[in-house]
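Regression check, zinc ion case 515:
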Amino acid sequence: MADIVKIFDTTLRDGEQSPGASMNTEEKIQIAKQLEKLGVDIIEAGFAAASPGDFEAIKKISEVVTKSTVCSLARALEKDIEAAGKAVAPARFKRIHTFIATSPIHMEYKLRMSPEEVVRRAVEAVRYAREFVEDVEFSCEDAGRSEMSFLKEIIDEVIKAGASTINIPDTVGYRFPHEMGEMIKELKEFVGERAIISVHCHNDLGLAVANSLYSILNGARQVECTINGLGERAGNAAMEEIVMAIKTRKDIFGQIDTNINTKEIYPTSRLVAAITGIEPQPNKAIVGKNAFAHESGIHQDGVLKHKLTYEIMRAEDIGLDRNAIVLGKHSGRHAFKERVRELGFDLSDEELNRAFQRFKVLADKKKEVSDDDIRMLITNELSSAPEIFKLKKLQISGCSAGVPSAAVTIEHNGIEMTDAGIGDGTIDAIFKTIDRISGHRGRLMDYQVSAVTQGKDALAKVVVKVVFEDGKPAVVGHGLSIDTMVASAKAYLGALNAYLSMGEILERRGKGNGV
Ligand code: KIV
Ligand code: ZN
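Current build output:
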């Protein structure tokens, strides 16, 4: 009989706290559906009290996800718990995850509360959460720096109040694996069968996965993690690494297993990268571009003779299909629709038609359209920022020798407007010209460009962060094209559109459409 460790995915909550990773509702729904397909036990869909957008996203996810438990985070406050309870109400399986800090430094300086008050607040929060759901998780924030005697005291009380999962976060990523293991062992002995012990490890010292694995070996039966290790600061423990470590080292983990369908790991990783615009580093374990690539002749020779000479896992086991058939300009609607479905997207007829048109435009420019290209086309379409300003034409001139200039045509309210301008560089010229045409002046805070697919005709993805008005938050825009300058113009316009739609989609990102 397998001894199951529950996988609690917090990509949509802690993962979204990665700088630049905010997602809109439609994007979160697509990720949640894919997480369900992956076999995640609990999806932390957000923090309901954080914003109306978060609340809405959790509610919608609760309506569509039926196999995984849907969870909302809540501080130990009545209003947070109420929002969480209402947001997860439609879910078939629902959980409220409430937390309060338990370390001396957090209690004294952040909460300004005595330990007694903290215990009282935690108990009240759990009791109140139980009025909305049966499944309540309690987290001792900064448990990694909390005192064991206090942890036992508060844990005892919240279990009596009705918490069935006790989460031990190493909030600041401070612990070493052996320390984490010892802490979990002692807490497991203390809690016994009264509740499940969970861990939530941050990666500040690069130890999040190691700490999670040592916790499992010492009795934790839930791990909180994210796809691609996204998360606050240095991120959370990467789900794919935890799951594949357990699968690969059966000699260490014995009967311990997870409910994850590992063949969905790679597609999930790609979807999250496409939606957030945050690519895993190339040498990232399991899902990085180089994770299964053998560069040296000796390694290649060995792998050709016998795969296990240099591979401890099979690429197929994580769903990395190196021989996947690529689509091209002769591929029809049916083949495209099938591929979109296989990639895990659930599109309406209208969305599919739009995506297919964009696929055709891309296939005309590119010989081969890869799965990553298709993911990009679709995720780019999911943006809810309306295209108030739309790029129609772009012409640039004057690289190293001449004066960099750009001629831009933008459509707004059905009218096409054209202007041209110069700048310190080509991108500066493009952005300044857009400012002049639109009448909105942006201050560029960040500009990033990456090739999201491979080859000379790779799709370029540009992400910009722009402030359009002092005192208003920066907006993020994404642009996609096989031409980096076009992608830059689209990203900038995406940010402008997000800014203009800010009332509805505050803090969400806008995207340039088209290819
Ligand atoms: O890192 C942390 O402590 C958290 C808690 C809210 C679980 O994210
Ligand atoms: Zn966290």
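Comparison notes: The chain has two domains: 3-276, 389-506. The chain has 18 helices and 17 strands. No diff flagged against the previous build.
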